[in-house]
Specification:
Six copies of one chain form a homohexamer. In chain A, 45% of the residues lie in helices and 26% in strands. With 73 residues, chain A is α+β, with helices and mostly antiparallel strands. The first copy, chain A, has a single domain, classed as Macrophage Migration Inhibitory Factor, CATH 3.30.429.10. In chain A, strand 3 and strand 4 form a beta hairpin. The longest helix of chain A is centred in the N-terminal third of the chain and has 19 residues. The first copy, chain A, is elongated and about 50 Å long. The termini of chain A are far apart. At the A-E interface, strand 1 and helix 1 of A face strand 1 and helix 1 of E. Chains A, B, C, D, E, F: This is Tautomerase.
């Protein structure tokens, strides 16, 4: 009865990709720990880029800087 | 000062039902562990059915299959 | 298929009390939201008092101050 | 590589305030535990006031009572 | 920069199995969402069976009942 | 009433350092969002290095490789 929580930034993951993550994580837990898929939960949280920080800044700011760096080249 | 996080699929829980969960969990922690309700937090996360997986598939797919099974009968 | 996480300080909750919390929360979710108990998970995290802060200080420090206040009376 | 999750009620925190929280928490972990900011994640969850309970009631109800108490004065 | 939290009961998962889960989840996120493994965190929480409830009872009680059922056959 | 969860690897953070994190995060939330310290919770989870993965491997393996790299110089 594992519970898996996947947190990613909200940057366009499609329903199909999310279904693939759910299937892949469940298969992994069945294969490695012989868990019962019927009681294996996988929950995906998509977080706004304003609300996710790395390196002391938000991913929104990070993406903006990356864009400017590309344009600046 | 307990912190309780309730995660459910986003499938129509009403404000009244959520208030009942908050009251019920708080009362339980007061009764069983003599906790102070003023510093007992209860947080309810409602998760889209695309983002909740069980048995290797999303709840969206699961509900669809359940509907088809009903119609098929 | 709700997932409930209860976080409390590690201050002596007995197996019986934890069993009572598990039963109580499950019953509440069955009664209020008609959830299936067989796929209702309740997980209890017990946190060391050094690792739980409130009011800007650890619960260890808070309990110590409470003891001194009692003795000081 | 710390992971920090900040949960607050959804009551108008601005992008600038969230950026300040991200910067402040990251700086704190660098200063206190000498962590690498490049692998320090800070995630802010904003929770609807219907979904956050304290003292056995939702924050929505709590704010309403606070408003009435002000008006009643 | 995904953050994945895997919660399982503390029932003997070996370091090798945990390493396999970490590698498998990371590979999945790289393959499906093209994420950078260097900033993909996977955290495994092992929960005592007294502290994990399903069907309204602790896994400790559940395992005990399963044992008795085996012996009773 | 913010709830902050700080997850770090279990690599020797002292009670004093944890108290400093608790005080620092609380002060930040008071200053930036004018929150009430009395209902601001900060919880620190220390995770075994076998149970924390980054780059597809456990931190235990990562630290071992770092040691060998140092010795190899």
């Amino acid at each position: 009865m594992p519970f898996v929580n996947i947190q990613i930034t909200r940057e366009g993951a499609t329903p199909e990709q999310k279904a693939e993550l759910i299937a892949g994580v469940t298969e992994l837990l069945v294969r490695v720990l012989n868990k019962n898929p019927a009681t294996t939960f996988v929950i995906i949280d998509e977080v706004d880029t304003d609300n996710w920080g790395v390196g002391g800044q938000s991913v929104t700011a990070l993406r903006l800087a990356q864009e400017r760096a590309k344009v600046g080249k």
